[in-house]
Write the structure tokens for this entry.
Amino acid sequence: MFKQYLDIHPEVKSALEEGKPVVALESTIISHGMPYPENIKTARAVEEIVRENGAIPATIGILNGRLKVGLNDEELEYMGKGDDILKTSRRDLPFIIAKGLNGATTVASTMIIASLAGIKIFVTGGIGGVHREAQETFDISADLMELATTNVAVICAGAKSILDIGLTLEYLETHGVPVVGFGTEEFPAFFTRKSGFGVDYKVDSELELAKALKAKWDLNLKGGVVIGNPIPKEYEMDYKTITTAIEDALKEAKEKDIKGKETTPFLLSKIKAITGGKSLASNIQLVYNNAKVGSKLAVELSKLSKK
């Protein structure tokens, strides 16, 4: 029934039918996460990295109410330049579709659409989570609940450091979502490799990780997996600098009463300004790094699925 809403790019469709590795990519990072033209340049570079590492990229978005799995060049350009692209999470999907609107998919909605298409591996920058002072605001990203229910593995550079990382990990534990460190015992914090919080399991190879994913879903253990892949050392930001920038940005957001889905784009924009653009450069490099690991993981999972 859901197929009537879904447009799968011919290359992606063919790869899925043949059991080839496919990697889902989100579009919020294009429409709301980076300025033009860096957003389009980054999106194209990420797709190329996915190809170089043996998988087929499937950037996901919504155009004229159609769920797009794999965007062509023209569609990708529009996602980066259009001023009518709405940030779209789980709750928004039915209304964006019904009204025939355009939407950039968050981690949660990308997971949903990837799952509908049969894609198991999803690469992003960082997941959403429990916001600071959530005990008063109850501001918790829908990404976390999606990870508890949707069978898609998410490769990320951890949770955005603007969040309460400790509470985010507690929430994931409560809902039975495994949190894995790729080559690390410490959960990364997006711009920095360290957060002060551990992971459930350290995994050192894509094959080991693919075996764990296959076992999880073979056992019908519903939900995704968070794979924390630290930003490369040479692109890591100074911990003190980024912490100060985040605290200043959070203070301004509170003063301006910025809440809900507008919070993260505002904070990331302010942090970019405070750090003189260094945070954007780090953001781009961590996405590239995640694309490499995610593509290799998709290749290994594809091989195991054919055995």
Notes: The chain has 13 helices and eleven strands. The chain has one domain: 2-306. The first strand starts at residue 6 and ends at 8. Residues 2-306 form a domain with the Indigoidine synthase fold fold (CATH 3.40.1790.10).
